[in-house]
């Protein structure tokens, strides 16, 4: 009927708030339903719906700029464009909170109309924890339209995954919380965005709406599915009120006072912090080292623990846990993350169904046991001297991260952890010995040992047939690596940079045909094995400051996938003629090679070379073929 009535007419059709494909099918199925020059405008919160309908011109509404947002807010809050002086600071606080969200600006501005500055301040404090019902009611429209699993992902994100890296979130959702469809539906519904840094970004109001949904599950925090507020967790753990309903818990240290400055370049005085004697935590953004030193001097009389990760400091609250069996009542708990809390957590009293455990700065010296179902263990900067004694069976454990655990001396027996895929012992600077069982982990994909470890030797046998990345950067005492590494057919990345005593690569290194990155900067190797010519998939070769290397294999040109070759600081005098066959080479570093005299005449064949660094060489004249390098910058 619509086609018959309108196909010869030029019209403007606006379809607002479309949430069902059937609506489009019935009202605007095809372009030929309408006359030439017609314009069809569709608004929706579901981007996928437009893509399914093959709409090729889409516009995503941007947040209002500060000036426009202020005008809109003032038109509702003051009925004009001017802000009274006594409301200026508070108005900026509200504007920062809603981040240019037009709907929020309208609702909040209307609510604050004709209220006093004191009332504004009170409402702002309340709003930071829970927005007004009118805002939630409108924002909840998108949430109510989600499938059940998407609603669960939305609540997970709102309660403890917002601002985390996308890869981390996807892994948590899939491996530990049983969510398989990912984040795309939330993005399509405009409830979530992925930032340029690949971090999840959920608007504060949307985040608080999701958290409010969880709060409404029960007046008793221990009856809710997710716990993230310190006061709620404190209540549950001290009073032992946890139940089977609790599925995720994110414990972070409480903060009495927070400090921030609105202008990035603002000049603030650390001395001004002295009167705040009750301050328990603070965040310092873009603080100079001089400012940090002054702050430490100023507050030297206060006992504080500094965490250099993001210049964050917090006084860690004591207590929380009275009954060690408290967690056992929460037998459906899958996710437990603990930050900046002094919690004497006995891992043997955790429910067996727990899949993810993260407890940074873990205070105990060893683990007595772990939940049978644990899939990932993260104990960054822990005080552990060893993980466990003897062989323990953890068949579900796939990832262990002990980064920065300075007191760890030896690695445990891994024979009972056959499905381990990631083992991160980076920056465990006192780690002296690896248990031989590490070499037998058939499913291990990542072994990260970087960071000035005390290791002097590696496993005698590398039988890790799934290993993709081996990182030994700055293992200063490691001299060699077993020849058996050459049997690892899945190895993509081998990092040995900074291993200052490492002096020889295995002769059969070329057997690792899967190798893509080989970083050897700062080692004492004298030459590359001739078999390196077989690494046809190698894309990156770093030899910076390998001062004993004075020549390269003559058939290096067979490494046809090479894109990056860093020879700076070496003793080489020339490049092999075969280098002309490295047609994909994009960067060539020869800076700091004082004995290097001549570039090969055929260097101009490297059509994709866009970076050539020759500073500090003995080259007097450039080869004429360099004119053929159109990509050179």
Describe, in plain words, how this protein is organized in 3D.
By secondary structure, this protein is an alpha/beta fold. Among the domains are: 2-52, no CATH class; 66-128; 129-216, Arc Repressor Mutant, subunit A; 276-314, no CATH class. The protein is built from 14 helices and 22 strands. It has a 15-stranded parallel beta sheet with strand order 5-6-10-11-12-13-14-15-16-17-18-19-20-21-22. It is globular.
Summary, kept brief:
With 633 residues, this protein is of the alpha/beta class.
Question: What's the helix and strand layout?
Answer:
Elements: H1 2-6, E1 12-15, H2 21-27, E2 39-42, H3 47-52, H4 66-77, H5 88-98, H6 102-112, H7 117-127, H8 133-144, H9 148-161, H10 166-176, H11 184-188, E3 193-194, E4 200-201, H12 204-215, E5 226-227, H13 230-239, E6 248-252, E7 281-283, H14 289-298, E8 306-307, E9 312-314, E10 335-339, E11 356-359, E12 376-378, E13 399-401, E14 422-424, E15 446-448, E16 469-471, E17 493-495, E18 517-519, E19 540-542, E20 564-566, E21 587-589, E22 611-613
Parallel strand pairs: 1-2, 5-6, 6-10, 10-11, 11-12, 12-13, 13-14, 14-15, 15-16, 16-17, 17-18, 18-19, 19-20, 20-21, 21-22
Antiparallel strand pairs: 3-4, 7-9, 8-9
Helix pairs in contact: 4-6, 8-12, 9-12
What attributes characterize this protein structure?
ADP binding, alpha/beta, three-stranded antiparallel beta sheet, 633 residues, 15-stranded parallel beta sheet, leucine-rich repeat, plant defense, Arc Repressor Mutant, subunit A
Helical content band: 10-25%
Q: Alpha-carbon distance between the termini?
A: 62 Å
Task: Kindly provide the radius of gyration, computed on alpha-carbon positions and rounded to a whole number of angstroms.
Answer: 30 Å
User: What is the CATH C level class of the domain at 129-216, in words?
Assistant: Mainly Alpha
Largest sheet: 15 strands, parallel
Topology-level CATH name of the domain at 129-216? Arc Repressor Mutant, subunit A
Structural class: alpha/beta
Number of strands: 22
């Amino acid at each position: 009927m619509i086609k018959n009535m309108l196909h010869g007419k030029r019209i403007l059709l606006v379809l607002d708030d479309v949430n069902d494909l059937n609506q489009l099918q019935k009202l605007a199925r095809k372009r030929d339903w309408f006359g030439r020059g017609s314009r069809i405008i569709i608004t929706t919160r579901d981007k996928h719906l437009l893509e399914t309908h093959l709409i090729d011109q889409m516009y995503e509404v941007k947040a209002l700029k500060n000036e426009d947002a202020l005008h809109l807010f003032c038109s509702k809050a003051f009925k004009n464009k001017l802000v009274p002086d006594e409301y200026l600071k508070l108005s900026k606080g509200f504007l920062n909170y809603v981040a240019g969200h037009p709907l929020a600006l309208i609702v909040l501005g209307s609510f604050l109309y004709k209220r006093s500055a004191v009332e504004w301040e009170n409402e702002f404090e309340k709003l930071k924890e829970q927005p007004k019902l009118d805002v939630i009611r409108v924002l909840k429209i998108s949430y109510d339209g989600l499938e059940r699993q998407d609603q669960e992902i939305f609540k997970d994100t709102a309660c403890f995954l917002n601002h985390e890296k996308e890869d981390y979130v996807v892994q948590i959702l899939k491996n530990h919380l049983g969510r398989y469809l990912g984040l795309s539906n939330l993005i399509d519904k405009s409830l979530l965005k992925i930032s340029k840094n690949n971090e999840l970004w959920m608007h504060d109001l949307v985040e608080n709406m999701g958290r409010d949904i969880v709060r409404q599950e029960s007046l008793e925090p221990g009856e809710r599915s997710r716990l993230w507020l310190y006061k709620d967790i404190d209540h549950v753990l001290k009073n032992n009120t946890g139940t089977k309903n609790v599925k995720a818990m994110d414990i972070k240290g409480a903060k009495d006072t927070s400090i921030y400055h609105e202008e990035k370049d603002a000049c603030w005085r650390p001395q001004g912090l002295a009167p705040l004697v009750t301050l328990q935590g603070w965040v310092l953004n873009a603080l100079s080292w001089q400012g940090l030193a002054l702050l430490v001097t100023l507050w030297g009389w206060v006992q504080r623990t500094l965490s250099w990760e993001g210049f964050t400091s917090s006084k860690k609250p004591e207590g929380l846990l009275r009954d060690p069996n408290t967690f056992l009542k929460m037998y459906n708990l899958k996710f437990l993350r603990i930050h900046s809390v002094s919690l004497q957590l006995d891992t043997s009293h955790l429910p067996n169904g727990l899949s993810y455990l993260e407890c940074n700065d873990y205070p105990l010296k060893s683990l007595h046991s772990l939940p049978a179902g644990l899939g990932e263990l993260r104990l960054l900067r822990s005080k552990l001297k060893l993980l466990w004694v003897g062989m323990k069976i953890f068949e579900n454990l796939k990832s262990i991260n002990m980064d920065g655990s300075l007191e760890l001396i030896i690695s445990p027996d891994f024979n009972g952890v056959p499905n381990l895929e990631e083992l991160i012992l980076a920056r465990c600077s006192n780690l002296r010995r690896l248990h031989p069982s590490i070499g037998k982990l058939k499913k291990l994909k990542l072994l990260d040992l970087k960071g000035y470890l005390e290791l002097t030797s590696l496993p005698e046998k590398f039988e890790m047939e799934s290993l993709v990345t081996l990182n030994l950067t700055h293992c200063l005492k490691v001299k060699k690596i077993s020849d058996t590494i050459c049997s690892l057919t899945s190895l993509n990345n081998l990092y040995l940079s900074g291993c200052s005593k490492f002096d020889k690569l295995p002769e059969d290194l070329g057997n690792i045909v899967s190798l893509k990155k080989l970083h050897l900067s700062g080692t004492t190797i004298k030459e590359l094995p001739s078999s390196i010519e077989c690494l046809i998939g190698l894309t990156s070769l770093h030899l910076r400051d390998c001062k004993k290397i004075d020549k390269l294999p003559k058939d290096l040109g067979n490494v046809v996938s090479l894109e990056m070759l860093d020879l700076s600081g070496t003793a080489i005098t020339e490049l092999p003629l075969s280098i002309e066959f490295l047609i994909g080479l994009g960067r060539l570093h020869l800076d700091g090679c004082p004995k290097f005299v001549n570039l090969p005449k055929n260097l101009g064949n490297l059509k994709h070379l866009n970076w050539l660094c020759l500073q500090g060489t003995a080259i007097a004249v450039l080869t004429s073929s360099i004119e053929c390098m159109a990509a050179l910058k």
